[in-house]
Amino acid sequence: MNTENTKAQMRKGILEFCILSLIHEREMYVSDLMEELKKGRLDVVEGTLYPLLTRLKNGEFLSYRWEESTGGPPRKYYQITDKGNLFLAELVNTWKELNESVNQITKNNNQTNGPETSFQPNS
């Protein structure tokens, strides 16, 4: 099994949660969103981000507004909707439960550091 593929799938699985969490704090333009995700060590390209934003918008979890830009074309700013806030609250609870379960299974109660890294393969 390819570790990089598994890591990529795990990141994709939590990307919507991270996007909603960031936009919950303030409305965001795509490049701002990409920068914040990068700061969190989730490098995302536009080709990945735009379909997710479209899906969240079509699901009525996000909306957007256009704003004129002094240095180029108008910018699309995304904001979370009431439905998106409710969905985000569900995701927060799901994340907490999942985090607790994984920590219990991996015998690590330190939830801020994630699973232990001292696993050794069986011989």
Q: What would you say this structure looks like, in words?
A:
By secondary structure, the chain is of the alpha+beta class. It has a single domain (3-105), classed as Winged helix-like DNA-binding domain superfamily/Winged helix DNA-binding domain (Arc Repressor Mutant, subunit A, Orthogonal Bundle), CATH 1.10.10. Helices cover 57% and strands 15% of the residues. Helix 1 (3-25) crosses helix 4. The longest helix has 24 residues, at 82-105. The chain is globular and about 55 Å long. The mean pLDDT is 87.
Q: Percent of residues in beta strands?
A: 15-25%
Taking all residues together, what is the mean pLDDT? 87
**What CATH architecture would you give?**
Orthogonal Bundle
Determine the number of helices (DSSP H or I, runs of at least 4 residues): 4
Helix fraction by DSSP (H/I, runs of at least 4):
55-70%
Structure classification: alpha+beta
Low-confidence stretches: none
Overall shape: globular
Radius of gyration: 17 Å
Can you tell me the CATH class? Answer: Mainly Alpha
The major beta sheet can be summarized as: 3 strands, antiparallel
CATH superfamily: Winged helix-like DNA-binding domain superfamily/Winged helix DNA-binding domain
Number of domains: 1
Number of strands: 3
End-to-end separation in angstroms reads 18 Å
CATH fold call: Arc Repressor Mutant, subunit A
Write the H/E string, N to C. Answer: HEHHEEH
Strand order in the largest sheet: 1-3-2
